[in-house]
Amino acid sequence: MAHLFICPNCGNRTTETERNAGFRREARGCAKCGFGFLFELLDDYYPAPDAAFFACDQQGNVIACGRGSFELTGLDDEKVIGRPVNDVLGLDFANGDDPVGTVLEWGVRKLKQPVQVNAEGDLPAQATADLFPAYDDDGGMLLVLTPDK
Fold it and tell me: Which of 78, 50, 55 is nearest to 8 (CA)?
C-alpha cells in the first residue's frame, strides 16, 4: 500500500511504500529540502501555490513555519516557535468552531474551513484552512492556510 506524504517546509509531495526506511524508527524526512519530518496524508492533496504551512505539536504550539508562512503573515520561526497557533495567527473560524482542537483531540482531518487570520501586526485576511493530524506517536497537526482571492 502506498503512503502519501507532504513536506511542511517546501510542500513537496511524495509517495512511499514504507513509512520508515530500513531499520530506522525516526520519522521520514524530506528528500528535496532536507526538512526533518513529513506529514502523512490519507488522500492526495494539492495545496495552492500561495498556501502557507504551519506544523504544530500535540498541544497546538507552532514547531515550524513552512513554505508561504512569511509571505502570508510576515512571521518566521524565531517569532512563533513554541507559541499556540491560535494566538500567533489570531485564527477566527466561522461559527466559533475550533477545528484546531478537533484535529488535535480526535485525529481527524478538517478541510476547507473558512477562517479570518489576524497575524501579529498584520491586517486581517480571509483564508481557507486545511488541517491534517499527524499519524505518528508524536501527534501534532499540519495547518495549511490558503488566502482567499
Answer: 55
